């Protein structure tokens, strides 16, 4: 099954799991599966229309899904998927 | 970089000997370093190792922008500073430290917050900018200014246990321009949404690692050795010790330099990042003095603390702990029948919480504690621990 790597800021929504194996054929499936299992994650990944948020990047292997087939990108069984959010630093406001 | 003839004194040649004897580096690369002018934005966790290594390496002119003063809580990661610097402007303390490290370089300091109105003038004196700041508005400001002025932006960022490094807006020897921050992240996270930095914190050694990598990329960009991290995006997870380098590319929809650019000058970055929204919306405020008098007079109100549990452990003023991200699921804990005062560290997160309570849940009885627990400690309870 494809493996998804969860970045630190989002781990509190995945019971502190940093890696998850999910049964999914495409990025779309994967995001659906992920947000079904961890509903609190949904608003951080998807906007109100259900599109991936612009400050979240998803990579399959080393490649940005924007350069593949976006959410329709097909995942191989051994694919490693990374979610890379924008991070800005350590300021508390 | 200028075409002036670079000469080294005997002492400088001795100092840079271990650079000069590297076959692919030599006096040529060392000369490029000496001729170069690098602006470092932020002299904190990332800026500390970055400035130390760039100064030691012999970057001829270093500019440092920072408005902050050295605080005790900086010392676990900001290795430029010592306890004797606490309370002093960071740029002054940094300059002193770097001059003692390398007297053969020029250091210019800007003890000011970098903004849309001063960045272009400051940046015009430099070849490369290195962004080591800690907030989204400044990230977009530095990126946009670099793109609009055609300068390379060596970027690094950290959050808790993760670090990122990239070289943005780099033009290679073939004249091809690499991607910039907006190709990767067209817009910032709205306040209140993870990954916002409000609930952050950072492992002290992490900026040491990531800031050093940033220094490496600055040196590569200046000297032309190796392959700068352009068109690639490096991430480091300190917990799992995993590094990954992703391929990134220019986005035709980039509003700065895509197919149809819509941004031709700098904008209001606080507003762009949604930070003004929280401040400008009608949030009732209460001062720490007023809150203190409410407490003394036995006024009936509920006090809510929207910080994180680890912050609560350091210092609290008896509020009910409901971290900002959990407000939505804790609505039933918030009283609608009496006054509710919400506080955080400095007033930013609590303003967001109040905005959410008012707009999503129709609360009309909530007040923001101006200046947060820090103001409370300053003015009412100095015996509490500040962080």
Describe this structure in words.
The complex is a heterodimer of chains A (93) and B (387). With 93 residues, chain A is of the alpha+beta class. In chain A, 16% of the residues lie in helices and 20% in strands. Chain A has helices at residues 27-37, 42-45, and strands at residues 3-5, 19-21, 56-60, 63-64, 80-85. Chain A has a 5-stranded mixed sheet, with no helix packed on it. In chain A, strand 3 (56-60) and strand 4 (63-64) form a beta hairpin. The radius of gyration of chain A is 13 Å and the shape is globular. With 387 residues, chain B is α/β, with parallel strands linked by helices. Helix content of chain B is 34%, strand content 17%. Chain B is built from 15 helices and 13 strands. Chain B has helices at 10-15, 17-20, 26-35, 47-57, 90-101, 119-123, 136-149, 181-184, 205-223, 269-272, 275-280, 288-297, 309-314, 348-361, 372-379; strands at 37-41, 61-65, 106-110, 128-131, 152-159, 162-168, 232-237, 242-247, 284-286, 301-305, 320-321, 339-343, 366-369. In chain B, the strands form 2 sheets. An 8-stranded mixed sheet of chain B has the order 3-2-1-4-5-6-7-8, sandwiched between helices. Chain B has a 5-stranded parallel sheet with strand order 9-13-12-10-11. In chain B, helix 4 (47-57) packs parallel to helix 5 and helix 4 (47-57) packs across helix 9. The longest helix of chain B has 19 residues, at 205-223. Chain B is globular and about 75 Å long. Chain B starts with 9 loop residues before the first helix and ends in an 8-residue tail after the last helix. The mean pLDDT of chain B is 92.
What is the topological layout?
The complex is a heterodimer of chains A (93) and B (387).
Chain A: E1 3-5, E2 19-21, H1 27-37, H2 42-45, E3 56-60, E4 63-64, E5 80-85
Parallel strand pairs in A: 1-5
Antiparallel strand pairs in A: 1-2, 3-4, 3-5
Chain B: H1 10-15, H2 17-20, H3 26-35, E1 37-41, H4 47-57, E2 61-65, H5 90-101, E3 106-110, H6 119-123, E4 128-131, H7 136-149, E5 152-159, E6 162-168, H8 181-184, H9 205-223, E7 232-237, E8 242-247, H10 269-272, H11 275-280, E9 284-286, H12 288-297, E10 301-305, H13 309-314, E11 320-321, E12 339-343, H14 348-361, E13 366-369, H15 372-379
Parallel strand pairs in B: 1-2, 1-4, 2-3, 4-5, 9-13, 10-11, 10-12, 12-13
Antiparallel strand pairs in B: 5-6, 6-7, 7-8
């Amino acid at each position: 099954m494809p493996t998804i790597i969860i970045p630190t800021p989002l781990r509190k929504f995945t019971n502190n799991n940093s890696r998850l194996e999910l049964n999914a054929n495409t990025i779309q499936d994967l995001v659906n599966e992920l947000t079904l299992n961890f509903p609190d994650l949904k608003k951080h990944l998807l906007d109100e229309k259900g599109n991936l948020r612009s400050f979240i990047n998803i990579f399959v292997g080393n490649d940005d899904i924007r350069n593949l087939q976006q959410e329709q990108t097909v995942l191989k069984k051994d694919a490693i998927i990374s979610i890379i959010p924008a991070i800005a630093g350590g300021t508390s406001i | 970089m200028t075409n002036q003839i670079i000469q080294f004194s005997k002492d400088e040649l001795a100092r840079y000997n271990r650079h000069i004897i590297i076959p692919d580096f030599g006096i040529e690369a060392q000369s490029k370093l000496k001729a170069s002018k690098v602006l470092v934005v932020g002299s904190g966790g990332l800026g500390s190792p970055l400035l130390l290594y760039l100064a030691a390496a012999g970057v001829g002119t270093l500019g440092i922008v920072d408005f902050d003063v050295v605080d005790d809580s900086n010392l676990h990661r900001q290795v430029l500073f010592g306890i004797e610097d606490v309370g002093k402007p960071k740029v002054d303390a940094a300059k002193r430290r770097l001059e003692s490290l390398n007297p053969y370089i020029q250091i210019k300091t800007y003890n000011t917050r970098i903004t849309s109105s001063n960045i272009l003038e400051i940046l015009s004196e430099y070849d490369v900018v290195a962004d080591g700041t800690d907030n989204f508005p400044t990230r977009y400001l530095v990126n946009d200014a670099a793109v609009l002025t055609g300068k390379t932006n060596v970027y690094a960022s950290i959050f808790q246990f993760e670090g990122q490094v990239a070289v943005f807006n780099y033009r290679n020897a073939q004249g091809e321009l690499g991607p910039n921050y907006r190709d990767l992240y067209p817009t910032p996270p709205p306040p209140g949404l993870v990954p916002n930095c409000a609930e952050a914190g950072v492992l002290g050694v992490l900026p040491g690692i990531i800031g050093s990598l940033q220094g490496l990329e600055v040196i590569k960009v200046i000297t032309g050795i190796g392959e700068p991290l352009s068109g690639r995006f490096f991430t480091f997870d300190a917990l799992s010790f995993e590094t990954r380098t992703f391929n990134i590319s220019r986005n035709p929809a980039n509003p700065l330099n895509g197919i149809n650019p819509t941004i031709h000058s700098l904008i209001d970055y606080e507003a762009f990042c949604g930070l003004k929204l929280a401040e400008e919306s009608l949030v009732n405020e209460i001062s720490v003095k007023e809150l203190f008098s409410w407490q003394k007079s036995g006024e009936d109100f509920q006090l809510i603390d929207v910080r994180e549990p680890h912050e609560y452990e350091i210092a609290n003023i008896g509020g009910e702990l409901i971290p900002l991200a959990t407000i939505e699921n804790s609505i039933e804990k918030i009283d609608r029948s009496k006054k509710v005062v919400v506080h955080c560290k400095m007033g930013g997160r609590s303003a967001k919480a109040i905005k959410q309570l008012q707009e999503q849940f129709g609360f009309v009885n909530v007040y923001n504690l101006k200046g947060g627990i820090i103001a409370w400690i300053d003015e009412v309870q100095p015996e509490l621990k500040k962080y």
